[in-house]
Structures are given as C-alpha cells and as structure tokens.
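ingest -> validate -> predict -> emit
validate: passed (alphabet ok, no gaps, 251 aa)
predict: started
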Amino acid sequence: MKWILALLGMFALTAPAWAADVSGLLHWSQRVELTTNVSGIVQTVKANVGEQVKKGQVLVTLDASGYQAQVAEAQAVIARNKEEQQDAKRNLDRVEELYKRTTISTSELESAQSRQARATAHLNEAQAHLRRTQKVLGDATLRAPFDALVVARQVEPGQVVASQFQPQALLIVARAGEMIARAKVSLAQVEKLKVGAAVTVEVNKQNFSGKIQSLGLEPVSDKGDVGYPVEVQFPTQAVLRAGTPALLKLP
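emit:
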C-alpha cells in the first residue's frame, strides 16, 4: 500500500499543474484581404481555397500588355533624354574651355549651363516616370505577402478589376504556421496572468505550446458571458481552422 501511495505522490510532483482550463476558439493570427492598385482584366488565378502558398508566390495576374507598353515607352524617352543630356554636357565642356580662353562671352556660358541643367532635369523626370510605370506593371501581379493559407477566392479569369472604385478583395489569406486561441477569464484570473507566459492549448486532443500575446484591460460581454479577453499565440504545422474549439490550460 505504501509503495502505491509513493508512486501517486511522485506522479503528483511530475504532472503539470494547471490553475484553470478555459474554453476558447481558434482564430487566424493574421488575416488579410488581397487586392490590386491597378485596373485590368484578370488573366490567371493560381490559388484555390485551402491551398498553402509561399511568400512572394504569384497568386493572380492581370492582363499587363498595356502597362508593359507604357514601360517600354518610358524607357525610350529615357534613352532620348540621355543622348540630349550627354550632348549638352559635351557642349558645356567645350564652352567652358573657350570661356577660359576668353574667346566667348559670359552669356554664352550661361546659355550652355542652362541647356545642361534642363537636359539633366528632363532625364531625372523621365527616370521618375519609368519607376512609376514599373510600379504599376508590378502591381498587375498579385503575390502572397507571407506564407499563408488561402481562406477565400473571390476572383476568376476574365473578371474586370476596377481600382478607381472601392478596392475589391480578390483573395483572402491567413498566415500559415501559427494560430491564436482566444478566451475570456474572470478578473481574478486575468490579474494572475502575464503577457509572454507559457500556456498549453489543446485542440482536438492535441496539445500545442504557446504564449500569452495579450490580456484585455476591459471586460467584454458575449451573450451574457462577461470576462476579460486572453489571446494565446502558438505555432502549428497542422492545418487548423478558425472557429475550432480549444482548451487553454492557464498556468
């Protein structure tokens, strides 16, 4: 009998002691509605609901032929302006040399300097315009902002996207590899907790190690259930769904 009691005592010492088990729900740690800043006809959609995508992966492309033509035109303008700027620089060098020899007037030197300044300004303006057109061309391709799960797809090939109106969410994605468990606790419980404290989250009989991300300062009420919100962030390789019940084992 004594050895049974001893074993029970050892188990009590080694087993984790939780101050409270609180029921909660899973939420995405980050959920983003993806849209584009440019207008056009959707050419391809390379993502479906439930798929996991990598940061930078192409998700949606618009017909970019018009934007590509604008970039080519801007590059041609830069090429012309570079020639003009180089010609103006050569002319200024020649005039400055002649001026040193006192063979030309000050007004001629100033005229050459003004021509050089105008040519440089035109080149700078053309380069800025090229950067803008390249930005627009880049915006015609929608990429994943981070490793994510595709939560919703609201676009199809052939669809017209009009950016000048209310921006339309084309895809909704959620950050992959981590989740948030949210629950409500009493005032007495929340005062014992600290941000960063370790918490075990149980989902479908599987335990995940997480940390308290935030503690509410005001009570919230939901269908008569009043409490202080607690958010626990935890990493996971498993694909979990928002809204899944979870059990927070608070320290």
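The longest strand covers residues 225-235.
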